Amino acid sequence: MNRIQLLLIEDDITDQMSFKRFVKREQLPYDYQIAGSVNAAIEMLRLMSFDLILADHALGDGTAFDLFEYIPVSTPVVFVTGSGGEDVAVRAMKSGAADYLTKDLNGDYLKLLPSTINNVIKAKSIEKELESYKQLLEEMVLVRTEQLQQEINERMQIEQRLIEEKERAQVTLKSIGDAVITTDVRGIIEFVNPVAEQLTGWRSEEVRGQSIDKVFKIVYESNRKQAVNPVFRCLSKDKIVGLEDNVLLINRLGLEYSIQDSAAPIHDAQGKVQGAVLVFSDVTQARKLSRELAYQATHDPLTGLVNRRVFEQRLNRVLESRRVSGGVHIFCYLDLDQFKIINDTCGHTAGDELLKQVTTIFRNKIRVRDTLARLGGDEFGILMEHCSLDRAVCLANSLREIIADFRFNWDDKSFRIGVSIGIIQINDEFNTLNDLLMTADASCYAAKDAGRNRLHIYRDNDENIKLRSGQIQWVAKLNKALDERKFKLYKQPLKTILPHIEGDHYEVLVRLEGDNDEIIPPGAFIPAAERYGLMPKIDQYIINNTLSFFADHATRLENLSVCTINLSGHTLGSEWLLEFILKTLDYYNLPAKKFCFEITETAAISNLNLVTGLIKKLKERGCLFALDDFGSGLSSFAYLKNLPVDYLKIDGMFVKDICSDPVDFAMVRSINEIGHLMHKQTIAEFVETEDIYNKLAKIGVDFAQGYWVSHPHPLEQD
Fold this sequence. Notes:
It is a single chain. Strands 22, 23, 24, 25, 26, 27, 28, 29, 30, 31 and 32 form an eleven-stranded mixed sheet that branches. Strands 8, 9, 10, 11, 12, 13 and 14 form a seven-stranded antiparallel sheet that branches. Strands 2-1-3-6-7 form a five-stranded parallel sheet, sandwiched between helices. It contains 27 helices and 32 strands. The chain is elongated, with a radius of gyration of 35 Å. The chain has four domains: 4-125, Response regulator (Rossmann fold, 3-Layer(aba) Sandwich), CATH 3.40.50.2300; 176-289, Beta-Lactamase, CATH 3.30.450.20; 302-460, Alpha-Beta Plaits, CATH 3.30.70.270; 474-714, EAL domain (TIM Barrel, Alpha-Beta Barrel). By secondary structure, the protein is α/β, with parallel strands linked by helices. The two termini are 60 Å apart.
């Protein structure tokens, strides 16, 4: 499938990012440019051409209506409106828009985007094709009309001129690209051009004088029944007729061609029907492409399974049918365990191959009547209609065991994976599709939280699901907090154990201001933010507001040695991160050497190549990096030499008991010594007592952080 050149005209950064993530997640074939204003869009339209324009109605410096005079007539426009309602949509369609979408707060309108764009592109293609055929038919009619007029004028001339004209007409018919057959009023063939010879398999001299039915055999593609010959319809009705859709021509050798055609009556000077001309063309490839497009609209291109849209339609059908006729139906939500490790270590090609192999395993195990779908990424859904819960659990457990025993081999490496499965019996509790999907998703992740590679059967009043539902409720609160700037920045100072660092050194932390002005700790909302993909937005907020604070407080910046800002694992995978940090530093004109970005060891190992590249580029600018929770991973020292960080934060689980546990003391000392050998400074967290601090000083740790040093307090507070 050709990639679609698309221009997104959208001034809202959040909507831009939602669009980018959606395109990436759904692996849509879009090469897109983004314009954030009317002027920017006009400039791009002058410089580039696009297959489709996706335009938000309300823009900062005007509306999308201001762009119509700059958009080529041949380029379809899809309006996106969050305000204005039906009036805007009607005006857009009257102005020439091909379609429109209405925004919603959850961004669900993006789910309609692929089908909308495909329909618009397809409609535009069909429009062009119809116009082409219309023009061709008009030209043929014009040519024929001219020929008839010439024949009328030349009837009074000598017979030789009539013969020459007939020969000239035959040469013309032979030279055109479509197949042409002419008949008399009885349907007896008089002329066949070379293209018609090729498609029918008959030579002109063999069929001249034969009935059109002998040469032009057509059947319906759907049921193989014989179709009515358009020549006889044309002769009986005395008008131009065309074939119905999905008609096949069966030629002399048994070859089949998808065709489209038209038959027109031939009249004499008095208007009496003298015969018919049949014009047809081979559209096999075009129809094949059309079928492929229809298939792609309903199936996952990688696995061949039905896609999320079709699966949700079937779930909706089951929900509706239950209300009328009852029945027991089961919905299983499956998520592969350890898939990301394979994807990150072996590449997306390996990940794709794994998904195809797993799909084959699932297909071979489920019932014929069950619907198996890929819902996105490494997530699958199974709809078991008219199936008891016990039977569904047995089948799901069988799938889990097969996947657990499965070994995926790639480049001489062997990987084990698992699958976590949430199982729901569809009953009266679920009134909407969203309720069902949300509960299924939560049930699947409850299985993951319980240790992965296991089942979680949803029951009424399920406490695990209530916890997940509570996290879902945080989504709206966190988005509101971002809009209303309710996140508050705190700092926790670090104490220099060895007196060789001057200036303030602290880590920036985040808190949330509640509706009643209470301060909510991060442990209450960070899990939900991570679970539902909001950490990149929160990290962006923290970075921007931290740098803005120092830009506004020159004295604080002058006294600053190092300010550490945390980056979540979710944020590390964002394409915008590097450019955003660099542009923000430039915007506020701040010295990069005073700012350190902290990442966890787990996140670094999970995205090793990506993180290493990010660190190198930011360090080239002067930024510092700290590796948090060092020692918690299984291969910490092996990965450390590949990460060019400046600070090691020793995991607090080792630090807090170093005064009483000789093993923890030895671990801290070893990490500190190896860190120093690699020319990295060390930071011990969880320093809760003076005894711990003295112990750390004894072994030469560089910095201490914890409640004994200082509790976190607002960033603006001295």
